[in-house]
Specification:
This protein has 196 residues and is α/β, with parallel strands linked by helices. Helix content is 30%, strand content 18%. It binds adenosine-5'-diphosphate and ligand LXEULUCI. Its EC number is 2.7.1.21.
């Protein structure tokens, strides 16, 4: 988390739109829990930057969905199929990600951008993001800044006591950390659990 994934996706979306291409942006409905109704039709990064398309935009949309199938996309399924570009944020929450992305790229000829977490706070695979790797033209792994020592961050450490894998949130629940700080925190936590 905090690696700049959403910010990077926003730049890709803005570049495609500047070239006159229609972009359909899909994000997780879970973001609505975190940011409120505003998150239904806007991409939102941790620094508050937002990308929203207005009514005058050429068929491009930002939509928060539960699933990537016709049930999730509902009335927007045709607009999604018709877009030149499909961009998916928070892809770790999307079931059937690889079949969806493959259909977009290979049956519909769309340009597809997908951004999401490959691993959860335990550093285990998160949703279907890793299933895309063998299908991609390009993979970019971004890094943020370790919240504890300032080195580059690689992992998301959960700072709140909860063991649910899916736990929507930001700085209140997670900190981006480097390997050394992740391992040090895990060792501390294991130590305090065994002392109890
Ligand atoms: N520790 C951090 N490392 C990097 N960026 C951070 C950090 N804390 C806050 N930020 C902010 O988060 C922004 C990136 O947010 P975002 O694009 O939403 O990342 P992601 O989608 O990977 O979680 C940065 O531009 C920066 O303003
Ligand atoms: C590590 C981890 C994250 N989440 C949630 C927390 C946020 O709502 C998103 C990640 O958003 P970001 O744009 O990458 O910052 O995922 C989770 O549910 N479980 C986890 O283990």
């Amino acid at each position: 988390m905090f690696a700049g994934k959403t910010t990077h996706l926003m730049r890709c979306v803005e570049r495609e739109r500047a070239r006159g291409r229609t972009v359909f942006v899909i994000k997780s409905e879970l973001d609505v829990e975190r940011f409120g109704e505003d998150a239904r039709d806007a991409l939102i990064a941790h620094d508050g930057k937002r990308v929203r398309f207005d009514a005058s935009d050429d068929g491009g949309r930002v939509r928060a969905v539960r699933t990537l199938d016709a049930a999730g996309l509902g009335a927007d399924a045709a607009a999604c199929d018709a877009a030149d570009v499909v961009a998916v944020d928070e892809a770790q929450f999307m079931g059937d990600l690889a079949p969806f992305a493959r259909r977009c790229a290979e049956e519909l000829g769309q340009t597809v951008y997908v951004c999401g977490l490959d691993g959860d706070y335990r550093r285990e695979r998160f949703g279907g993001v890793l299933d895309l790797i063998p299908l991609c033209d390009t993979v970019t792994r971004l890094r943020g800044t370790c919240a504890e020592c300032g080195d580059e961050s690689l992992f998301s450490r959960r700072v709140e006591a909860s063991e649910d894998v899916v736990r929507v949130g930001g700085r209140d629940k997670y900190a981006p950390v480097c390997r050394a700080c992740y391992v040090a925190a895990s060792t501390r936590e294991r130590g305090s659990a065994s002392a109890r």
